[in-house]
Amino acid sequence: MIRLSLLALVPVAPALHYLFSIPPIWVFLAGILGIGVLADWIRAATDQLARHTGPAVGGLLSVSLGSVAELMLAMFVLAQGQPSVVHAQITGSIIGTGLLGLGLAIVVGGVTQERQTFKRERAGLLSSLLILVLIALLLPAVADFTARRVTHPGNVSLNDEDLSLLVSAALLLLYVGNLVYTLVTHRDVFATGEAHEAERAWPLWQCLAVLAAATAGAAVESDLVSGALTATAKALHLSTLFMGVIILALVGTIADLFSAVWFARQDRLGLVMSICIGSSIQVALVVAPLLVLLSWLIGQPMTLVFENPLDLFAIAGTALIVNAIAGDGETTWFEGVLLIGVYVVLGIAFFFA
Amino acid sequence: MIRLSLLALVPVAPALHYLFSIPPIWVFLAGILGIGVLADWIRAATDQLARHTGPAVGGLLSVSLGSVAELMLAMFVLAQGQPSVVHAQITGSIIGTGLLGLGLAIVVGGVTQERQTFKRERAGLLSSLLILVLIALLLPAVADFTARRVTHPGNVSLNDEDLSLLVSAALLLLYVGNLVYTLVTHRDVFATGEAHEAERAWPLWQCLAVLAAATAGAAVESDLVSGALTATAKALHLSTLFMGVIILALVGTIADLFSAVWFARQDRLGLVMSICIGSSIQVALVVAPLLVLLSWLIGQPMTLVFENPLDLFAIAGTALIVNAIAGDGETTWFEGVLLIGVYVVLGIAFFFA
Amino acid sequence: MIRLSLLALVPVAPALHYLFSIPPIWVFLAGILGIGVLADWIRAATDQLARHTGPAVGGLLSVSLGSVAELMLAMFVLAQGQPSVVHAQITGSIIGTGLLGLGLAIVVGGVTQERQTFKRERAGLLSSLLILVLIALLLPAVADFTARRVTHPGNVSLNDEDLSLLVSAALLLLYVGNLVYTLVTHRDVFATGEAHEAERAWPLWQCLAVLAAATAGAAVESDLVSGALTATAKALHLSTLFMGVIILALVGTIADLFSAVWFARQDRLGLVMSICIGSSIQVALVVAPLLVLLSWLIGQPMTLVFENPLDLFAIAGTALIVNAIAGDGETTWFEGVLLIGVYVVLGIAFFFA
């Protein structure tokens, strides 16, 4: 019901833009909300689609289609020639679910429970993957720096592209390996017991129709949002980087934030961890590499070379603090506060830098 | 008894300075010892004061007043226009207790016990806080670097100040959250069982009188020490940074070193961890932010932007090695040797750089 | 038997070089294989020698003599005036066993076993030592950067040498401490139960004769390999750094790769960990410091200042991912895939940078 009624938000941005002559900031904000709603519909349709297949194919579908709305927005921003804003959006998605989402969920869960626990084994895998994320996203920047300053100063942009393409392919392969691991060979350990039997299953045509319609809608909204980005940043006296890391990132994270808090209240911390940390990991190991490949196909190449040191620092900080907190298999309210605190402090730094 | 007799060291530095015309190096060394003794008295008085209140208020008092001597010395050094020496002093306090103090205690404890154990839960919190320290102290430097080199080269010193003030406020709030957590909501887990019933309780007037007198004394000594700093560094052929990181830092750490070794011999490793790691954390989350706020109030602003990469590296290294060693809830003599080894190696680097 | 027949590879490189006029690339490759074989013989002789002494002296012998072939090759490369290639070789040895060797062994072991386990206590020590490696190899670079850019720009190469010598001495002392710890005071915990009773013990004269002959042979081959290095790199269109990190490093790691896979098939994961991680640690804490000392004695000084940021990043990444994977005391096939993935991604970066 809630999901249906939220659809009313979708036509607001196009209406404001095409029917009224209104400052772009309103189009921007309405568009962000619209994409957020459509992203949630796309995920719902993908989950339903997965019920028509086995869990392994379903997992693959869910990963490749679940982030279509974020990808769409990023592609339109990229088409505006702003790769650094897309990098900021990727960073923002990682810290948005990994720090803010997880932190809020832990605090909400910690209000009623003195301590919440989850399987250490699952935490161990998430922890290793977070370190992989850290290495994968820092590596191209380090290699670029090395080539530029140390080994052969000069034009290295061509190399950056090849390096990014190869690293992206490797990350996607590793993610496929992870799916085989969690959905096939070690399925019992990672079963989250997420029950959606209560919901009515959609027929196949409905899944596909919703996917197509929501994707088309997301494209329209993304066009409006990316077009209004610079004007909105100016109106709010904010940098486009700050907009990317805090606001554009909401598109991919807002639905996760709500689910995480929802499951935390039901004391299902394992599921909360999978959603929040899993979402951060998916952004880094799937969304970012896909963007590199897609952007190269459309001839508007984006590399994996994050040039803003703050992006790299935020990703590294998230990996380390989440590892420290998830390492012992249990959480208390203060650990949630710590995560939110780190998010706030990073936000302050992005505001000033 | 020992504490009383150590008071005899306090008047030495003023006497040397005002009565005799003696090289400043002796005034400096005597002053350091004097502040060390007064710092211990201030902590004793604060602990006593805490017995007149509940544990929560007591904890808050102990945190805010316990480091008055260190703060005093840092403020005087700052008034001499040497913020980088204060940064070195902060770094030195962190590595002094976190590496040297903890290492010595573990070695001393390991001589008699094959292995010493402590509650993993407590270690988990310390570990998370150490990572917060790492993020908090590196972040301003990264943001400064970003603003200076990447986004808008030019004058960014004003921004550094605002950023440091906001981050400092956030850190102090997080530390208050930590006190609520350890002293109120999850008090049972963190009770150290530190018994001081044997000691006679001081009446309230005595606590306040000792606090006032010791603080005044520390101010006098700090004035002498900061005045003699540059001349002493020159006489010893050492940089002022090395003096800050190794010698000035002793003021805040010497008492902790003795307590840590003392409790290690009694096989109370949990308490040793709380003292050493807790002290490192407190310097980063309380002393450094307070210095930023105080220095701004007196119009001689110090930022949180640690400009010396070695300071940042030393803090990061301490956080990582302490995490690796404390992570499994037990220690052996070699782990203590490792901590001392890292301290020595860092000291060598500070000497050369 | 295998070991004996492999000896046939040793005379190939000298024959190719002195008897035929053949492109240097074939001499280079044959020389690498020859040194690899001799390195294995040197290790075998050292292990045999250790059986004539107690375990403590044996451990010391094994550490100091076991890496003679790698040291020899590095010294000849150094004599060619290429310290950065030696740095690459050191990095390559660390990631070669720590990532590739361990990863292959875990995958091979994971094919038959759903999960393999090992003592967490031993993992804890390896984890702490890896962090020490990280600190020790990054520190000189940070100190050099600090001195060069921040405190006193100018000629700092003399300081780098003194710093490297002192840090090397400290690392060697810490390694001796580690030997005392694992072979004397806490021997029971670290006993690997590696049985070599089946093999016939060599008499003392045979140990010494094999050591001397193999070392002399390694010197001859190393001379040929280092002489053919630049020409081979040019013929293969590769940088000498890439050659160092991927190919020269094989000399020290190839035997470990085979042993690790061998023991993984026997489900002896604890031993695999000791071999792979232990070998990485030994390269950093023994081979690198010894090279600094030896290179200084022969008047061709090499410092510990790794100037290639990718080297530092590869070492840091290895320490972090191995820690994340080994931390929980058990492994599955996907963790092995992750390690190999990180190795591949680092290799790609070394190729482009």
Automatic annotation (TrEMBL), chains A, B, C:
One of its GO terms (biological process) is intracellular calcium ion homeostasis. The chain crosses the membrane at residues 25-44, 56-78, 90-111, 123-143, 163-181, 202-220, 240-264, 271-298, 310-326, 333-352. It is found in: Endomembrane system. Gene3D superfamilies: NCX, central ion-binding region. Pfam families: Na_Ca_ex. GO terms for cellular component: endomembrane system; membrane. Residues 25-183, 208-348 form the Sodium/calcium exchanger membrane region domain. One of its GO terms (molecular function) is calcium:proton antiporter activity. InterPro entries: CaH_exchang, CAX-like, NaCa_Exmemb, NCX_ion-bd_dom_sf. Keywords: Antiport, Calcium, Calcium transport, Ion transport, Membrane, Transmembrane, Transmembrane helix, Transport. Signal peptide: none annotated. Its main location: membrane. It is a multi-pass membrane protein. The keyword Calcium applies. Belongs to the Ca(2+):cation antiporter (CaCA) (TC 2.A.19) family. Ca(+)/H(+) antiporter that extrudes calcium in exchange for external protons. This is Ca(2+)/H(+) antiporter. It comes from Rhodopila globiformis.
